[in-house]
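User: My advisor, Dr. K., asked me to get a structural model of this assembly before our group meeting. I'm new to this, so sorry if the format is off. These are the inputs:
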Amino acid sequence: MCLGIPMQIVAIDGHRARCEAKGVEREVSLFMLQDEGLALGDHVMVHVGYALQKLSPQDARSTWELLDQLVAAGES
Amino acid sequence: MPQTSAKTWLERIRALELPRPIKVMNVCGGHERSISFSGIRAALPPGIEIIPGPGCPVCICPEEDLHEAIRLALEQDVVLVAFGDMLRVPANVPKGEPRSLEQARAAGADVRPVASPQEAVAIARAEPGRRVVFFVAGFETTTAPVAAMIAERVPENLLVLLAARLTWPAVAMLLDSGEASFDALIAPGHVATVMGSEEWRFVVDKHGMPAAVAGFTPESLLAATYSVLRQTIEGRPFLDNCYPELVRAGGNAAARRYLAEVMEVVPANWRGIGVIPDSGFALRPAWHQLDARRVFPAPVAARKRAGQMPPGCDCAGVVLGKIYPDQCRLYGRACTPRNPVGPCMVSDEGACRIWWAAGRREARAA
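Assistant: The format is fine. Below is the predicted structure of the whole assembly, which you can bring to the meeting.
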């Protein structure tokens, strides 16, 4: 559960955002990052629907690679 | 900055000359999942062990709280919502009675899994005439979003049954006991993302033990392993941060602000372990009207095995890093993910469940 999923912000409405990862869009709360000045295109680490922290596109990618491996291993 | 590969980290670790065997504990189900699935353990040279410790909030969720959630779901006109892996955790009830939230649902209770606090809020909005009880077991990473949810305002019919815990006090208890079975610590990356890495400084300052915060990739976990081994060899323990991508000084200030505003830190019960000082979150008085325990006081009735792990289950030993999952005598025999006996075989963050999913199917020969 604590793993977290990196997502990219595609729309912002107040403290709510539409975020995208691998073609899947979800509503994410930016409430805990309200001091950060987030912008469209930024990547955030999402846990239980809340953005915990901003992260770089490269770091988002390396976490996605890990998640892909875990999913593949879990299905085998 | 180019990232050092897992292979390079492993070569660096293999080149180290250890003065003695070293056991490193991790305290995060996500870490354990990545370690188990990437095969890091088998790749490490002899003399270096990584043991999973207290990294699963569902596993130590008090049996009494679980029993209370089941009771509320069965006896009150409420919608009981909880994170999915809580639904199959067994409580200790007489034979024939529903022993999990899933069984309560099968018996007619309105029990629904959620993946986020927002889903709980949405259910409360959709059911304005009923009370919705959000049963929350989680560490800081999950509790902060719940605090944010409450601070942002929730519908009046949403109540919270809180079984939220802090991670570091369990490690502090183990170290203070003088019986800790590990020599170094890998601290949890997303707990530190929220709370800051400073929370773990006591491991170094008070106990002189090497420590490093890690992220979840094999590279980050191996970097942290290399760091604590180097610290051991050089005799200079310090708190390293091997997850600077997300872990900033002071953590997430807003998240900590909402946690402090909504919740206070209290002594708390850990299933099968007992009360650990300063290890639980409770709602502050301003939010007592949301507290399911106050709205629905639990009957004071003696129950058999209240608070304990299920009979024969050694989850408490697994959670505290005293034994490996496959050293429990139920592992893979009486206890499997299909028919779990203990919470560590239920939760996605439970070490037994993770080891099973990663392919370990048999108990270790005694």
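One thing worth pointing out at the meeting: Residues 289 and 354 of chain B are 38 Å apart (CA to CA).

User: Perfect, thanks a lot.
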